[in-house]
C-alpha cells in the first residue's frame, strides 16, 4: 500500500475528510495548516509532500503557488484507526494498484 491523502485515509476509516481533519486538529495531531506534529512524522505515521499549484497562469507571475500536502502512511493509517477506535476498511483492488 502507498501513502494516502487525508481524503483517502478518511474513506478507509469510514469517516469524511472534514470530520477526520477536525478530529486530528482537536487531538493536536494536525496544526491549523493541516500539518502533522514532528514526532508523528519521525514515527513514520505521516509524510509531507511539497506540491505546486500552477493551473492559474496569473498566480505568482505564472510560477504557481507552493504548498504542503499531508499524506498518511500505511503505519499511520493503522495508528489512526487505533487512536480513533475504528477498524480500517479493506482496500479494493483498484486502490491497491
Walk me through the structure.
- It is a single chain.
- This protein is an alpha+beta fold and 97 residues long.
- The chain has one domain.
- It contains five helices and three strands; from the N terminus they run βαααββαα.
- A three-stranded antiparallel sheet has the order 1-3-2.
- Helix 1 crosses helix 2.
- The longest helix has 11 residues.
- The chain starts with a strand and ends with a helix.
- 18% of the residues are buried.
Q: In terms of structural class, how would the helical and strand content be classed?
A: alpha+beta
Number of helical segments with 4 or more residues: 5
What's the gyration radius in Å? 15 Å
Give the overall form: elongated
Structure characteristics:
97 residues; alpha+beta; 3 strands; 38% helix
In short:
The chain is of the alpha+beta class.
Topology (SSEs and partners):
Elements: E1 4-5, H1 6-12, H2 17-26, H3 38-42, E2 46-53, E3 65-72, H4 74-84, H5 93-96
Antiparallel strand pairs: 1-3, 2-3
